[in-house]
Fold this protein.
Amino acid sequence: MAEAVPYGRRTQRPLDVPDVHIVWITGGLGCDGDSVAVTAATQPSIEDVILGAIPGLPRVHLYNPVLSYEVGEELMSYWHRAERGELEPFVMVMEGSIPNESIKREGYWAAQGNDPATGEPITIPQWIDRLAPKATAVVAAGTCATYGGIHAMQGNPTGAMGLADYLGWNWKSKAGIPIVNVPGCPVQPDNFMETLLYLLYQVAGLAPMIPLDDQLRPRWLFERTVHEGCDRAGYYEQGQFATEYGSPQCLVKLGCWGPVVNCNVPKRGWMAGLGGCPNVGGICIGCTMPGFPDKFMPFMDEPPGGKLSSGVSSVYGGLIRALRGLTNETVNKEPRWRHRGSTLTTGYQPRSY
Ligand code: SF4
Ligand code: SF4
């Protein structure tokens, strides 16, 4: 009888490519929401990546405090192995923003695990200093890790920042790969898993350099605005604006920032193609943006530029809407030659041969 083949071995893998490891730091200032969000991914799912269902992908091992089976010291042993260069190659994922641990006299803002030598907690900046130089690629998951997010608001006491603020915007991994930022609060599940999959292929030497924009975001995911993919954009163009929730019309007067925000959520949806903030009635508050949240506050006020553009759209859109109404009425009626009777009125002209 043939030997049973474990699920993870069904996919044909390249023989000369080593296993790839993912060391996922969740101990930054955050809510673990990005780890939770990726459990909803389907393109690909995290299970597909780890169980070997993706064609050509090397075997992948994941070490994440929220998602791994291992806990406590057993889990942290992978962090220490990565630091000693015993997990090769690995992708470092950063989740949560990075507090400035050098601005206080005692204690720590964020830490993960203890130093075996001293028994003291290892702070998140210390982990980044230990792991980032050893990682083949580094990716920041969610707006806290990418740009600082909520924790980095004006007036915050921790001096929180994003990974590129900490390592430097021109930082590159030992393989020459820049920091990759996948913002979102939380990160859109498929955006992150698609990017992670790309990096896993790249780390395995099976993909070219990931294309990034000047904010280190994957270009193909963040080059369009919310507005360009919004189900309600037709209402905006026709100058039809909601004044209360529950309306299908454009939400700009209720505080939607979609026209100036880079995010593909209305096109991609949230889970399995469903949802996507304005599509389902929620204003866009710019949660993917480097300027979030300060530059988008107060939430639920009409954005400053929105008054002018929606004012223009009201006039222009009102006229367009009226003209379209006339055309719509015309095309909603059948042509007059479709009728019963003994007379053909289609305009048919018999040919003479
Ligand atoms: S709801 Fe927002 S994103 Fe959608 S059309 Fe209106 S302004 Fe644009
Ligand atoms: S549509 Fe706006 S609020 Fe929604 S995820 Fe994208 S940036 Fe964030």
Observations:
- The first strand starts at residue 20 and ends at 25.
- The pocket of iron/sulfur cluster (ligand 2) is lined by residues 184, 226, 261, 263, 265, 277, 284-288 (CB under 6 Å).
- The chain has eleven helices and seven strands.
- The longest helix spans residues 304-331.
